[in-house]
Amino acid sequence: MKNSARILSGAQIAEAVKREVAEEIKILDYRLGLTVVRVGEDAASAVYVGNKVKTSAELGIRSEHIHLPAKTSQAELLRVVDELNARADVDGILVQLPLPKQIDENFVLERLNPEKDVDGFHPVNVGRLSQGQTALAPCTPAGVIEILKRSGIEIAGKHAVIIGRSNIVGKPMAMLLLQENATVTICHSRTVNLTEITSQADILVAAIGRPGFVRGEHIKTGATVVDVGINNVSDADFARELFDETELEKRLATIEKRGSTLVGDVNPKEAKMKAANFTPVPGGVGLLTVAMLMKNTVQAAKMRRKTD
Ligand code: NDP
User: Fold this and answer.
1) CA distance 192 to 250
2) Which residues form a coiled coil (predicted)?
């Protein structure tokens, strides 16, 4: 079979989104403020927060990073959230997940002022999104929509199948695709005959958290496959099943050097042979997430300051 998929690179699209956001910021007559709150010492969270703060600075957003100790109580964190809710100079608040065990994530997220909820996780924003109203939408699925639209992939009338039903990716992805007039099916771990359903998808979104889970048999010939997954693979034999000759050597070298390589939820070797369009990991959806956070911060500021 011919290796034919067009690779939808997230890099150029993320740069375009950031450029547009920077232009919008330049003409505002106030300075935007984004505050990121991190609790504890989760290594991945530290990297994510670092990226968010750095990108804010690049685009001219005043960013603030509040780092609280791992033993912070829920009451202490809620006090910080209350202060940020009350501050007029803070347009966006992001509480980096996961939070330590003693803190109830949902309780904290509900305490955020929905107008400042740039992650789009507050029930008010979730509700608005599902009603098709203007809402701050979660950044990763919003990034998927940007990739599809800016790559000229038609969504209206197409059958979009999402594997995964999390509040962060799967469910909001379904709402956003529905808003774009796709016919949407959501699959999950209890779905029966998964392959039968996914192989009917014009647009297949994988948000599962299992490396290389989506195989050629899951994909309709000519489909667009969007891989949201981010997983580490350290087994060289497994890597040989996932990557074709254009990538394998580099991936094996990465495993050798760093102990693992980043892999999505889709088997890229097989997806490239069946799909017409495919987002790579890394270099695909992941790059859009921070860009969409910046876009949400501008949107939050415009909506809130209009009514202040
Ligand atoms: P969750 O673990 O919250 O959800 C995974 C979903 O996959 C669940 O709905 C689960 O079903 C479903 N699932 C698990 N196994 C199967 C199976 N065998 N068949 C069908 N469905 C299955 O993960 P997230 O949504 O938070 O993340 C998904 C992936 O996306 C991860 O790899 C994560 O790292 C990545 N991610 C990437 C981001 C980015 O910026 N690119 C941002 C956020 C996440 P059930 O509900 O029944 O358990």
Assistant:
1) 37
2) none
96 catalytic? Reply is yes
Residue numbers in the chain where pLDDT is lower than 50: none
Instruction: Decide if domain 29-115 falls under CATH 3.40.50.10860.
Output: yes
Say yes or no: do domains 29-115 and 138-285 share a fold.
yes
Assess whether 18 carries a catalytic annotation: no
* Spacing, Cα 207 to ligand 1 middle (Å): 4
Q: Cis peptide leading into 69, omega within 30 of 0? A: no
CATH architecture of 138-285: 3-Layer(aba) Sandwich (3.40)
80 neighbors 72 (Cβ within 8 angstroms): no
The model's pLDDT over 111-123, given as tens digits with 9 standing for 90+, comes to: 999 999 999 999 9
The total of other beta-carbon atoms located within 10 Å of residue 156's CB is 8
Where do the structural domains in the chain lie, given as residue ranges? Answer: 29-115, 138-285
Ligand 1 in reach of 215 Cβ (< 6 A): no
Tens of pLDDT, residue by residue over 130-145, are 999 999 999 999 999 9
What span, in angstroms and rounded, lies between the C-alpha atoms of 278 and 224? 6
